[in-house]
Amino acid sequence: MSIATFVLRRLARGVLTIWFAVTVTFLLLRLLPGDPALAVASPNMTEAARAALLEQYGLDKPLIVQYGLYLVQLVQGNLGVSFTQSVPVLDVLMQRLPWTLLLTGTALVATVLVGVPLGVIAASKRGTVADRAVQVIGVVGQSLFVPSVGVLLLYTFGLVLGWLPIGGAYDTGTYGNEWYLSVLSHLVLPATSLVLIQLGSYVLTMRSTLIDALGEDYTTLAHANGLPARRVLWKHALRNALLPTTTLIGLQLGFLVGGAVLTETVFAYPGIGRGIYEAVTQLDFPVLQGAFLMLAATVVVVNMITDVIYGFLDPRVKTA
Amino acid sequence: MSADKTLGGAGTVPLSAAEAMTSTTAEPVADENGRASAATWRAFRREPLGLLAGGLLALLVFVAIAAPLLSPYPASFGENVLRPPGGGEWFGTDALGRSVYAEVVWGTQQSLLVAAAASLIAIAFGTLVAVVGAYFRSIDGFIGVVVDLTLSLPVLPLMILIAALVGPSTTTIILVVAAFSWPEVTRIVRSQALTVVNLPYVDAARLMTTSPVWIITKHVVPTVTPVIVVSVVVTASRAVLSAAGLAFLGLGDPTTWSWGRILYEAQQSGAMSSAWWLTLFPSLAILALVLSATLLSIAYNDARNPKSRRR
Amino acid sequence: MFRTSRIAAVAALAVSALALSACAPTAPEPSASASGGGGAGAASNETLTIATTTDVVNYNPLIGNSRSDYWITNLMYPHLLSIADDGSKEPQVATEWGYVDETTGFYEIRDDLTWSDGEKLTAEDVAWTMNAVKRDAPSGTFYGQLANFESAEAVSDTRVEITLTTADSSIVDEIGFWGNVVPKHVFEPAGSVAEFANDGSAGGWVSAGPYLLTDVQVGQSYTLERVEDYPLVEGGTPYSAEVVYRVFPDVNTEILALQSGEVDVIANSLPPAQVETLRNTPGIEVEEAVGLGYAHMTYNMTKPDLAKLEVRKALAHSVDYEAIRKVVLQDQAVSTGSSPLMPVLEDYYDDSIEEYEFDTDMARELMEEAGYTADAGGNFPVSFRLIYSLQDAVTSQWVTLVKDGAAEAGITIELQGTERNTYLAQTNAGDFDIYAGNFAIMDDPVTNMTLAYLPEGAINYTYVDDPELNELITTASSTTDKDEKVELMREAAAIVRDNVYDNIMYTQNLYFAHSDKWTGFVSKPSELLSIVNPISVASAHLK
Predict the structure, then answer these.
(1) What was the ipTM of the complex prediction?
(2) Disulfide engineering: C92 pairs with which of B41, B197, B301, C82, CB 3.0-4.6 Å?
(3) How buried is residue B192: exposed, middle or buried, by Cβ count under 10 Å (0-12/13-18/19+)?
(4) Cα(A109)–Cα(A116) distance, rounded to whole angstroms?
């Protein structure tokens, strides 16, 4: 397979993924109960006023026509106008998406930096107390209920100790370097809670793949050749074990961007997950459709990035 | 593993750990007979974490079944509001003066029900799709694409969307969680099933009978069973976290006690930081369930994998 | 080698995320409107930070009805009238108001108000706003008040006259209280007021209130700067130089932020169970705002079972109202005597109307009278579906008590709590047996009864059509004599109560928390006004 066809296939797949997400969202919104005219209007609205609103939103047309119009609109790069706010959907989303990317990106980097070494330790000391401790830490983190941890962190570090701010992404009225510091300090607690819940996946994936890799022939061979055990571990085995970890990153970022809604709620972080929740309560169809499109696009982009990293890490892919 | 299978390479967050383990230990286990399972059991018994987890899980199941013996059903209100644990109330009382202990005990029932039902549906459907796909290779490609596409959907936001539109109830929660869990199961089982259908003895069976159902039930299903067992446990425990998350956002069943509902009501009454007992006990219950389920599946996998068993 | 490439890749990811974020608001220094005190000694350089649980959805005050929208636009677009604790109206932009004749109303407005861009606020703005709302029918409360309104005219710079289609003795008060005044010179060029977003994208906002919105960070904060000249507050200048609304989706985080001093005020009313806790928390003070609305249940009379008076009575007698007020509302609510005329409406309240007694034996007898026979288990062969909104925390709690009470009387109630939109859809479609909900402000009995009990009323959730009641309400709405009006309303209230056309359960008083460093808040009725009404925000000051 040439590079060109490979790239083309990936792109086609990306487009397919985005189309799928958009279509699923579109159909769910229209086929499930819920009347967006009610969400924006006061309850004492006349039937005529309601019909007028529905017409204004284009919801009076047959489903297939609505869908066709929407796809045409999308191809032109137009995400539509928010029902409730009467402003372009892109504006609504772009105010939130960067914060989510910052939060989840930071959490991801921190998780990998902590999780991979822990996984290596667990695998190389298999069956020892250290291994079990690492497993338990990882699994406990995964099993925590985010809001409870969030309130505990806020109470401890925000209120009792007063080290870190409570809520928001930065303090208004800070500029320049002070602003960056403010952003950083607001990031610590929500990112920590995300690291806690993700850590387990990385630690356990790393551990189990390493255990497999350590058993594979070439590492046995490397042992026979007299290489020091530690070099074998870190170099050959680790290199292989990093592949699934890379894949995990690709998938987790996509998942996290939308899945951070509980974290964003408790920490009052202005991200897109919370934005989706609010759009749901307002039945703001265009914003919801746009948000799910963005999430799908994020997944696609991140997957393409991990593909490239994959190529770096695994020479076999190139020859495939 | 080729780059083309990236999406199939690892799971979404919830299942990734267990999945990574099952897929990397995905050796043909068609020949696993009584001796091998006995070996697995022996190895398993030597794993204290696994045994501990099993015990904890059994305890939770016991609480769910024996709830009527352990505590009366939570009253609709009580006189003493927001009392800390102590005196007659082990776990304190909530904003309406109800016993948190009774809520947690009865909540176990609902939480385990959601977990079990959601994972059973997801697994039944996911396995069916996987096994059929593995056997009828012509539609396998299509199934693979659908699974990958579904896996790339943002799960929690979609769950929120559906629960909000359909209206929260226990059934909704179960179906929503199941609807987004089956592709994960399909993928895990599929990779396992693929290794089986290509084995010589299945080919031989194909020659002997024309009934795919017979081959699937006789040869393929038994082989993928261990993988499914692990999947059940992990999917179930994850369902509890998802259900609690939805409940916390006000999208749970408001009329049945569940751990998520206790947390949601604590949040609504603004008592999460001042009345710690409202948050602590249901959170601990969730932790206990998810933790024990995950540890159990890890221990089981380790025990089943001869490679890690040798050490 | 491979490790460095991995780290490089991960770093690239992080950097791209960071870069994206950095594109966001690097917030250039605002021109520091350092005009510290505009003459009055009271003004300061302080910032008042207020917490809210939701974002602003609409900056156009004529659309939508969410809390944050109301609070923030209220600081920029004034109302003609304000409201007193007993529901009577007070001057705001209008200084005098009333009727010229049966179908003509008038408002005399202040001549010293100016929009922040220098234009004078005149009667023309007021009249244009009313006519535009009537024309474009934006989906807000304002439009709902205009049923009998035909047109408005600015007869001078300070006098507006409104023409009515029919005699309506409440409409001047109601339009004056619910309607905002928007700047004609900004809104008219934008076309329909029902579609104008007013999101500041065309060069910011224009305000005639104490503050002007200058910066919006969605999901996070709304910054408003002081308007130096605001004659409605003592001294003529608001105290705080800046008001920042911050968004905390979770009440618990909101409370933590108040305790840690990050915010000074919580705009949302406190959950009943938190009032005592916060009162006893050092550094926090709790203010009371009287309730001017009620919580109620209606029984859908289009359902055959509920069309029977005995059944409705049986249901009304199987609710433990005392327990609901004591436990769920922590004694922060008052009984209205099952009458739509709440005690807070002192002129109208009639203490001879008594609350339905909680008596499940009586309820059983009533069911038997209605012709139902209980089975061996003591249950009658009926089941009713009660709908409520899950976003309404207090109602969500008391419906359980309603269900348990009915069960004691052998009546099955099935609770159906749903997300707010589904609930509204069900309410509108009449898709329920029993409806539970509440209204924040029911300030004018005639208007409310018109909406709630006349056959065409928008909130007639009982689907009642009682000729005697209709007659009383329509007569009252064209009656200008106050005593006569009160008499008619009392008669109507007695009919509503005796026929269980509505089951009004309580008026909830609301509590609001703020930091004890601040004082001078002016509490107004309901959560809409509370201590974050324009006058209160402009007057609040450090101790």
Answers:
(1) 0.84
(2) C82
(3) buried
(4) 11
